[in-house]
Amino acid sequence: MGSCSRGDLVDDARISVLDHGFTVADGVFETMKATPAGAFAVTRHLRRLGDSASILGLPRPDEDAVRRAVDVVVRDWTAGGGEFGRVRVTYTAGTAPLGSDRGEAEPTLVVAAASSPRWAPTTSVVTVPWTRNERSAVAGAKTTSYAENVVALRAAHEQGASEAVLANTRGELCEGTGSNVFVVVGGRVLTPPVDSGCLAGITRELALEWFDAVEEVLPLSILQEADEVFLTSSTRDVHPVVRADSRHWPSAGPVASRLQEAFRDQATRTIDP
After folding, report:
1. Disulfide: which of 5, 141, 169, 226 matches 183 by Cβ 3.0-4.6 Å?
2. What is the pLDDT of residues 127-185, one digit of tens each?
């Protein structure tokens, strides 16, 4: 179920084949956890949507209008029996010529929700040979250009893992294809800074605010040296890792387990922290 830029609630929203989001992935998006209580952390997500749009040179979307669309779509999804899923806001440059130049059309906005399976209590990751470019023109933006993530995630799945972890061009730990990476070293909870090229994830942001976590430049090899590893994302929340490449842990680590439970408790207290 989704809502398109005209504000209609439809089952089969249609976008022009000349939309720049379709032809050259000229757009940004946000994915929020959808529950019967609503979309989680919607205010933070819509702020980041606007920030991403600004990086691409697109006008910031009307946050109030997007919020209303999200509310309507999630209510309709819930009425249809939805209990756990994703609500996605996609914002593109709109109809444009076939090429990199933009046209004069208004941006396209689509909000859609769909149910998703819940994650297992623990997960596994593998490193992949490709890198994030921390000096990219779109570093820090959550763009619809996800082809490299698709390739990396497919490689991870072929190795029996749920996520691929990438370094940046300096060989530093950066992020997963759709998650941020945290490590526990000597009791300290660490995650790469945003200037590593990683996306400033909303769950990452909450973990830094709610828990005693610190940003620190880390080598990719930290995955083989850390006491614990865990991922954060909008649908994973805090997700303990029990395998990183050939390294195995017998169970979720005590710090990751504690933070997983603490995040769940905090998130149930407010839908929009």
Report:
1. 226
2. 999 999 999 999 999 999 999 999 999 999 999 999 999 999 999 999 999 999 999 99
267, 237 in Cβ contact below 8 A?
Answer: yes
Are 198 and 175 contacting, i.e. CB atoms less than 8 angstroms apart? yes
Which tokens is 193 given?
């800074």
What one-character-per-residue DSSP string does 94-122 give?
-B--SSSS--SSPPEEEEEEEE-PPPPSS
Q: What share of the chain is helix, strand, coil (3-state, %, to 5)?
A: 30, 30, 40
In this structure, whether the domain defined by 2-115 belongs to CATH 3.30.470.10 is answered with yes
CATH 3.30.460.80 fits 123-269, yes or no: no
Buried b (16+ CB within 10 A) or exposed e, 64-81: eebbebbebbbbbbbeee
Distance from chain centroid for Cα 55:
17
- Residue 14 has what pLDDT? 83
CA–CA separation, 245 and 37 (whole Å)? 37
Torsion of CA 234, 52, 114, 79, to 10 degrees: 90
Q: Which residue has the tokens 């997007």?
A: 66
- The CB density around residue 43, as the number of other CB atoms within 10 Å, is 13
Residues of the chain with pLDDT under 70: 1-11
| Per-residue CA distances from 258 to 230, 238, 241, 251, 254 (Å) | 12, 10, 13, 13, 6
247, 273 Cβ separation under 8 angstroms: no
